Amino acid sequence: MDIRYPIGQFSFEGEITSTILSEWISQLEAAPRLLREAAEGLSDAQLDTPYREGGWSPRQLVHHIADSNMNSYIRFKLAVTEDKPTVKSYDQTLWSELADAKKAPVEDSLVLLEALHRRWVLFLRSLSKDNLKRVFVHPDAGEVSLDYNVGIYAWHTRHHTAQITEMRKRNHW
């Protein structure tokens, strides 16, 4: 297993059925609880230990998930209310080096994610099939449909949560 990708890289080809989409939304719904469980009981020293050489610490991972998912939620709302909006990218590496990502208690982002995901899941479940086919334009990725982006973010949150849980297993924490 490549420790950078403990659940593998995201890959999906084919039709995104209502069953697949429902599963992805359920994964987003469960994500804050699973992330909380992964980070629960870690000391500050453990939270600040990179999960691999050159990688982020669990603290940075938790805050990164919050940053990333907030950006994604806004992108979804833009895509539903505007015609093919161009969204802004951000330098996640630089964001992970900011004081809030390196020093803030993980509880801050865990609480934020619990509230964000409740809103996001409610919003996603309210969208029609047509709305889920709407797109935004990402400067690097090009046009991204909302239904596909649900899959990306369901994977993304599970991916980083698995980095923390695998680190705990490796270090017997």
- Residue runs with pLDDT of under 50 for 5 or more positions: none
CATH topology: Four Helix Bundle (Hemerythrin (Met), subunit A)
Number of strands: 2
Number of discrete helical segments? 8
The geometry reads as: globular
Can you tell me the CATH architecture? Up-down Bundle
Order of helices and strands: HHHHHHHEEH
Strand arrangement in the largest pleated sheet: 1-2
| Mean pLDDT over all positions | 97
User: Superfamily at the CATH H level?
Assistant: dinb family like domain
Alpha-carbon distance between the termini? Answer: 20 Å
Q: In words, what does this structure look like?
A:
The chain has 173 residues and is mostly helical. The chain has one domain: dinb family like domain (Four Helix Bundle (Hemerythrin (Met), subunit A), Up-down Bundle), CATH 1.20.120.450. It contains eight helices and two strands. Strand 1 and strand 2 form a beta hairpin. The radius of gyration is 16 Å and the shape is globular.
Layout of strands and helices, then pairs:
Layout: H1 18-39, H2 44-47, H3 58-81, H4 92-96, H5 99-103, H6 106-126, H7 129-132, E1 135-138, E2 142-145, H8 146-171
Antiparallel strand pairs: 1-2
